[in-house]
User: What shape does this take?
Amino acid sequence: MILPDLSIKRPVFATMMIAALILFGLISRWRMGIARYPNVDFPIVSITTTLSGSSPEVSETELTDPIEEAISSVEGIKHISSSSSQGMSRVTVEFDLEQNIDIAAQDIRDKISLANRYLPKNTDPPVISKVDIAAHPIIWISVSGNFPRKYLGLVSDELFKPRFETLRGVGGIVIGGFQEREMRIWLDARKMEAYHITSDDVEAAILNKNVELPGGRIESPTRELTVKTMGELKSADDFNKLIISYLNGSTIRLQDIGFAEDGVEDKRSVGRFQGINSIGLGIIARSGANQVDVCNRVKDTMRKLRKISPSGVNLDVAFDSSEFIEKSISDVQFDLFFGGILAAIVVFIFLRSIRSTIIVALAIPTSIAGTFSVMHALGFTMNTMTMLALSLCVGLVIDDAIVVIENIFRHGEMGKDPVVSAREGTNEIAFAATAATLSIVAVFIPVAFISGLIGRFYFQFGVTVSAAVLISLFVALTLTPMLCSRFLKVSKKHGRLYGSLENTFLYIEKLYKNSLSWCLNHRPSVIAAALIVFILSLGFFKVLGLELIQKENRDDFVARIECTVGTSLDLADKKLAHCEKIIQKLPEVKSLFALIGAGGPRSTTNKGFLFVQLKDSGKRNRTQIEIMAYLRKALNNIPGIVAYVEDINALGGGMGGRNAPLQFKIKGPELSRLSKISQNTIDKLRSVPGIVGVGSDMELTKPEIRVKIDRDKAADLGIDIRTVALTINTLIGGREIGEFKEGGKSYDVRVRLIPEQRKTLTDINRLLVKSRNGNLIRLSNIVNVSEDVGPDIINRFDRMRSITIYADLERGKTLGEAMDDTKKIISETVPHDYSVEFSGQAGTMTETKNSFIFAFFLTILITYMVLASQFESFIHPFTVMLALPLSIIGALSALFLTGNTINIMSLIGMLMLVGLVVKNSILLVDYTNTLRNRGMKIRQAVLQAGPVRLRPILMTAISTIAGVFPVAMGLGAGGETRAPMALAVIGGLATSTILTLFVVPVTYTLFDDLFNKFRGESQQ
Assistant: This one.
């Protein structure tokens, strides 16, 4: 071949090629980002539409329905979900992963522009935006101290937040527990009545007497001056002196009917860190940024800000997701390094030569470094999948070098010159090495045809492995023969250790040859035994649990609490404090950040979060799973709350909701019936062992006050319906009317009644509105006020009303088992005219099963095509690929014996086996063909090829097993997740290697006999 000959003739040129590979690889490694999982961009578009005063039912029919109908014809839509609430509709469109998000968003805008004509006239224009579901805080900074929340919020917003926003890699900042500054106008209803003033008068005064407009410019021959009308109010005192109206020639000022306060917005959230009053700064990383570097920069900036922060204000890290990511990647790197050492030791034991071992071992850093260049060029990050791929490749990348150097060594033992041995030995084995490498690469061609989340994971894993083995083949055909021609010495005198090991290997070869001879004499029995073992091993599919990803012992989790719908913030805060006390008593807890109320227009004062960080796993006696199980019981024993304790970074993808692994949606037309069906399903799920934390997104019983207007009476008195609605909205709810500026910033002006005059239903009846003739009319004359319950939010999925049910798992319950139990319950509780669809992890797992089956069979087909092309035979690929079913035996057995499950990692391992195990078959079949081409009879060729190829087969198999052994141990951060892949590889390689050495030669001879018989009959 050209490469080996060129490298041997020009060693400096070969050395520089390898040096360049390493140099650019190291530069790429330094520039690569770090993340937990591959970056998957979910193309999601959100349409938010507001209609002031609309109920959830009205929002659904007048806003959500026409918008969904307009966009439903857009190409590439996977799911449409929506939530209709008071005054707002939010429609979320999830596209297929292959869809371009920019094109999708533009298609949505075009459809919405056409649908605007069907929306109510007073609807605000729909806001269309792209959604990044990964845009959640990766680190929370707590700002705490014995100060009022207004002061802590001001310091956080104006001093700390700008410093963090400018950091490289930061995409946004969320402030938890923050209350925006506002100018609060507090009105006294009794004084307003005495002065004959209504809320409309106050609104008109603020809008007309708090303005600042440009007045043009004054020009002269020498100067030009800008004219600005200074009509804005600057302070609370200015607002208090604002003239609202006149009565009997006297001015009525705001201070006569209430007062202005430079305050903050209504208290809708509370935050605490370690039990101390706190504001939380949640830092969101920009898409594709190195999350670990972003967190490190944030922590460095935090330490600098401590020096300039006001006295008594403390900054602490409340939650840091990068710690686990960093430890996880670091542990995978250690597994890679340790696996490389183990693989090198295996090579040394077989070759018993330090020079040979060094030559082979050089393939590891060279191939890994070269792979970094490919990863960086494709925009990959250093994540669990790519690092796992490299860990697996530690044993793979030396395979080609092993078979090359072993063959060179064998030629050297024949007495040939080192240069001749290197050239002839490499050329003889080059085809087999190339075929074996291409068979591994062929395994990952189908990833281009896999859709969904599993396809993205396979893609990065597969490309990394393919790049590594292709580079290792290049190294084996250039660096290895060049070094062997210059430095490899084949000595005829050896030490005692060498002789002892050589005698052992010779004995194993002799034993193998005798056993192979027996197998060739009993071919039907060998084939039948292998077939029986394979069929029996398939029973493990029934025994092994099925889940998306193995549970892991992390150092953080979140506890979500929910109080009864309608619970006040003060009562919910007391419940939150009770939860904090229980968690802080645990000796394993490192830090606790608690937050209640989400803030924003959909703030919910009855829901809270507790972010719990644990001490390192080595410093605690209980695992995270045990601690979470304890807290589920302890927190749910608190009266008046429901607690869900869940992982923070659960894998699954999709849109919104809890991180519970078991999720499914029940869809149907009638909301009340849907509620009954869902509640019945929830009750039955709660009785299933291992299924815990069962809940839903139902919010159909929110307490509400309904104001019914007598239209006839209102018309007789000259009162508009809009006037009544705006009066209630302004005085009871509080409405933004105008703004004021200070220090270059704008703040809202909010008008509302003083608290003591808006506590009961009768307070609404006492409100006054002004008729057309100027008379004051009490609302009690034209409205009927009553208390009732109604939906707080109406959810829909794929244009049907839906309720999502969530559940967590414990006591070893796998997601597959939970889904089976759920399907049985659904068949009993859900009528045929209502449908069910799994989502979250459960939905992703269903996609994963289908994707894997497709990928597995496509991989087998492509591998056959590649082998058939290389061997120029339709028969030999079948012989080579017999190693595949033999590997399944070991993979499933290893998972069963170690108590693991079938999950995304173990499936990747089994898919990888397709390429790994055929390498051994290729070495056997290729050399057998070579000997037959030299004139040997088939039995003699098989009996000679087997022992000759025994050592390289054992070396490559054992070195690969040694390379992934540290990963199989499951040690370190996230080790439980990574272990199933390595265990599947180890088990599959072990059984396939042992069985391949006997079954493949037997089948080879059997197929040859059948082919000769068929050819003979054809000729006759």
About this structure: The CA atoms of residues 320 and 606 lie 26 Å apart.
